[in-house]
Prior knowledge:
Layout: E1 9-11, H1 15-25, H2 36-40, E2 52-54, H3 81-88, H4 95-102
Parallel strand pairs: 1-2
Amino acid sequence: VLLRAGRTVHLTVSPAAAEVLLTECGRPLDLNRFDPAALLGGHAAGLDLARLRYHHFRDFRAGIASGSFLTGGMAVCPCSMGTVAAVAHGLSENLIQRAADVH
C-alpha cells in the first residue's frame, strides 16, 4: 500500500519472519541477498521497487538505526511477543529493535 502511494519504505526482516514467510506463503527469502520479487511475488508488478530500501537485520549502520533519521512512522508486522518485550524494555539486539527504540 505504501509503495503504491509513492512512499519510500525501509524494510528489515528477521530470520523468524523469513521462516514464517516460507512456511505460510511458500516464499523463500534470502536475508543476505534480498529480492523484492521473492517477498512480494505477483504484487511487485507496477511498483517502483527503487522505493523499497532493504536493510539487513544486523546492519546497525542503516539510517533507520539513528534517532535523527526522519520517517513518517514505523510498523512491526508481524510482531512476536519477544520483539514487543524487547522494544518495551529498550533492548536493541537487532535493527528492528533498534529502529523501534529510536522511533
